[in-house]
Amino acid sequence: MQTSNLNRNLRILLGVIGVILLVYVLWNVRTIIYYFFTAVIIAFIGRPLMALLGQVHFKNWYLPNWLKSLVVLFTFLGILFGFFQMIIPKVISQANIISEIEPDALVEQLQPHIERTVGWLDKFDFNEKELEEMITTEVSKIFQVSEISSYFTNILSGLTDSLIALFSILFISFFLLKDGTIVDNVVESLTPDKYLEKIKAIFKQTKNLLSRYFIGVVLQILIIMTIISVGLGIVGVENAIIIGLVAGIFNIIPYLGPIIGGLIGMSLALTTQLQVVPDFDVSSFLFRVLSVFVVAQMVDNFVLQPLIFSKSVKAHPLEIFIVILAAGSLAGVVGMILAVPAYSFIRIVAKEFFNGYKVVQGLTKNI
């Protein structure tokens, strides 16, 4: 009996040590894990194009997988480089405008609006001088030329790491696209035979579901970026495409992202406009800019999100909303971003292994 307990305790101890070592190794190679998951997303997005290229043939000759993979990746790179070629001059122009801003002059231009705000804040015994000093200090921190220079220095110093990351992601993506079942084969080789068919079904459904989801997210970013860029361009904002890009990227974060993107976008629009056109009606300008962001969010909330989240992952909008809130409370912003794909995968697994439960049947009836 004692020997049995000793063996059991030893197995538990070895298991705990194994888990600790696994976590330690994974933490130290987390950069490679980031590369792998980024490559997986690219492979998901590229699957429809791979399928389309699979239909291209000359008599009985079809494009080999390695060639289809290269075409997909070169298409991806072409779009990416074309986008950066268009956006980088705008970024440099925006940075030059910001670097020329004088904090004191900016505060002076905003003085009438500060006074109106202070008139409202007087009810709460707020000191006008403190407000002005606070704004001057914060503006100085944000728009200091030395700070902007350090940002660009950091960007340049990270260029090598970025190139390594790009090469690694493309290399992994190539093999994930070329050998579409490479991950499936590894997992299936570790799976007991009695679960093999279920695992195959899980992988097939996951690929289809997440491909639609990630393609939908890319379209969502592009549409939001276009709406805001065109809207701000009509309003007369300089470098509107930069603000649209920022807002589109932050829009990935559900609920919280549009607010952050809107605040950053309005700040960039205001400071740029003050530098380019010093004499203008700030209140009217901010109202027009805010209107653009409101319209973009209405399109996103009432059209894009129901179509992308509900249709692509086949879940009710209220279901998605609750899942995102729960993930946000558990894991913050990262949890909110990963909530939908993770929930989709969990539903697929639950359908295959726990379909006998009514609650699982209800949650997975559409997939």
Numbering strands along the chain, what is their spatial order in the largest sheet? 1-2
User: Which stretches are poorly predicted, pLDDT < 50 over at least 5 residues?
Assistant: none
User: Can you tell me the overall shape?
Assistant: globular
Strand proportion: under 5%
Sketch the topology as an H/E string, one letter per element: HHEEHHHHHHHHHHHHH
Total beta strand runs: 2
Mean pLDDT: 75
Biggest sheet statistics: 2 strands, antiparallel
Question: What is the CA-based Rg, rounded?
Answer: 26 Å
The assigned structural class equals mainly alpha
Number of helices: 15
Give a structural overview.
This protein is an all-alpha fold and 367 residues long. It folds into 2 domains: 1-100 and 144-180, no CATH class; 194-367, no CATH class. Helices cover 84% and strands 1% of the residues. It contains 15 helices and 2 strands. It has a two-stranded antiparallel sheet. A hairpin with a 2-residue loop joins strand 1 (57-58) and strand 2. Helix 2 packs across helix 10. It is globular and about 85 Å long. The model has no long low-confidence stretch (mean pLDDT 75).
